Amino acid sequence: MVVCCLVAVAMTSCSVSKEAVNFKEVKNYFYRNDAPKGEQLLKLTTQVEFDRYFGAAAFMGKNGQPTQIDFEKDFVIAKVLPETNLGTEIKDIKLTKSSDGHLTFGYSTTNKKPQSYSIRPTAQITVSREYMNSKLESK
After folding, report:
1. Would you say residue 33 lies in a domain?
2. Residue 104: which of 82, 74, 79, 70 has the closest Cα?
3. pLDDT tens for each residue of 95-115
4. Which of 15, 49, 125, 128 could cysteine-pair with 23, CB 3.0–4.6 Å?
5. Model-level pTM?
6. CA-CA distance, 99 to 118, in Å (whole number)?
7. Containing domain of residue 111, as a range?
């Protein structure tokens, strides 16, 4: 009985726990044509950095303005997928922090029918600057 308990304690102490991190989704920005190609996971800490990759995509109507980002309080994590002609959506975004301090950006994608043009699917979130020095990875 004691051996079983010790094994259970040893197994749980070696595992890495994860906790959810609060974030806010950023809306109405597009990935710039002159930004780097290929899949990327970006950590953008200033407005100047953000503007190198994204431009505002405002439109008329309800919720048409781009999300305001306060880089004094937050930074941006952006997932950029490769160019495609499929209508692709990044969804089910989750951000977790492991007990070793790493941030994991989790998501899923849905692909719709082919389009007559190409897109660079992206998702951006704002996160408190308290997490800015954490190592970032995606799943």
Report:
1. yes
2. 79
3. 999 999 999 999 999 999 999
4. 125
5. 0.85
6. 39
7. 16-138
